[in-house]
Specification:
118 residues, mainly alpha
Length: 118
């Protein structure tokens, strides 16, 4: 009987310890969706030639930073409103930078070179 109680206690302790980690996995569905969207936009920009290698490297670094920040926010089992807000702000900034980089490179290719016209 004591062995059964010990096993049951160990199982219960394991469930209680791991439960916050499981719940934290679902704490940032919007962040996860936006990360995937941004990765897809970066890949599309590389494929189309809108993004340079330097742009891509900067954006990938920024995406890794957001991923690390999300991991840290989930570490205690609860993503606070402040942490969620910070993640959203970082993703907003990353989104703007992706858009700008794609537009800037495109604009540079379409504008005539003024040096050749002189």
């Amino acid at each position: 009987m004591n062995k059964i109680a010990a096993v049951m206690s160990a199982v219960l302790a394991g469930v209680l310890i791991s439960a916050p980690l499981v719940w934290a996995g679902d704490a940032t569905p919007e962040v996860n969706a936006r990360q995937k969207n941004q990765q897809d936009r970066i890949k599309q920009g590389v494929k189309s030639g809108e993004l340079t290698k330097g742009d891509t490297a900067k954006m990938e670094k920024q995406q890794r930073h957001i991923k690390q920040e999300k991991k840290q926010a989930k570490a205690d089992g609860k993503v606070t409103v402040a942490e969620q807000t910070k993640l959203q702000q970082d993703q907003d900034k990353a989104s703007r930078q992706i858009s700008r980089a794609k537009r800037n490179d495109k604009a540079a290719r379409t504008q005539p070179d003024m040096r050749q016209q002189r």
